[in-house]
Write a structure and sequence with these properties.
With 91 residues, this protein is of the alpha+beta class. It has 2 domains: 3-38; 47-85, no CATH class. Helix content is 36%, strand content 16%. It has helices at 47-62, 65-81; strands spanning 3-8, 14-18, 35-38. A 3-stranded antiparallel β-sheet has the order 2-1-3, with no helix packed on it. Strand 1 (3-8) and strand 2 (14-18) form a beta hairpin. It is rod-shaped.
């Protein structure tokens, strides 16, 4: 449920509104729909939320097919064009 800040262009009233799919966005003072959406000045972010989001993004990226294909291509490139960089397999 996003909360938006608005300013009515008709009467100048500033207010916050929780916007849902069914919400009719109108000024609570004059019922005008002539509104300007303002930049919100409030955000909640903690270190634990940031770390959790970063971990989830890294997991999603590392499990993506594009990432795996890129790593395989890099390994093949090294093996084919720079064999001196490849460690020999111990038998």
């Amino acid at each position: 449920m996003p909360i938006y800040d608005y300013k009515c262009r008709t009467c100048g009233h500033e207010f916050e509104l929780i916007v849902l799919r069914t919400t009719v966005v109108a000024c609570p003072s004059c019922q005008s729909a002539e509104l300007e959406q303002l930049l919100s000045s409030f955000a909640v972010s903690t270190e634990s939320i940031r770390q959790s989001n970063l971990k989830a993004a890294r997991q999603k990226f590392s499990s993506s097919k594009n990432y795996k294909d890129q790593k395989v291509a890099e390994a093949e490139e090294i093996r084919d064009h720079a064999p001196h960089l490849v460690k020999p397999n111990p038998k």
